[in-house]
Each structure stands twice: as structure tokens, then as C-alpha cells.
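Structure in, sequence out. Go:
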């Protein structure tokens, strides 16, 4: 559970900004969105494999650009 304590002279807007940052760092929203619906294990494996493939293509593309 993410908690943020309000400082003495801190405004509500600043408090909300800090809270949103903590929530993003904890990846709370992304996990809840991902777990909103059940995903079959085979679909999860396919999704992870596709992510790995995209990332490897991106890194090889960057390495090839550096060579030129």
C-alpha cells in the first residue's frame, strides 16, 4: 500500500503529485489493469514473448545505427 504523508506547508496539489509519482513507481495501476481480466497462461506467454521480440529488435536496430 502506497502512503504519502503531508508536509507542514505542502499544498494539496503538491501532495497529489507526489502520490501519483509513488503510485507510478510502485506499478499499482499497471498491475491492476493487467489483472482486471483473467488471462490464460498461454496468452500470457505469447504476450511476454512478443515483448521480448520487440525489445530485441529495438536494441539491434540501435546497435546497427551506431555502426554507421
Amino acid at each position: 500500500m502506497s502512503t504519502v504523508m503531508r508536509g507542514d506547508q505542502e499544498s494539496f496539489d503538491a501532495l497529489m503529485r507526489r502520490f501519483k509519482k509513488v503510485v507510478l513507481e510502485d506499478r499499482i495501476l499497471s498491475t491492476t489493469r493487467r489483472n482486471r481480466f483473467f488471462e490464460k497462461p498461454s496468452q500470457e506467454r505469447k504476450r511476454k514473448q512478443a515483448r521480448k521480440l520487440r525489445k530485441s529488435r529495438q536494441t539491434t536496430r540501435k546497435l546497427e545505427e551506431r555502426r554507421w
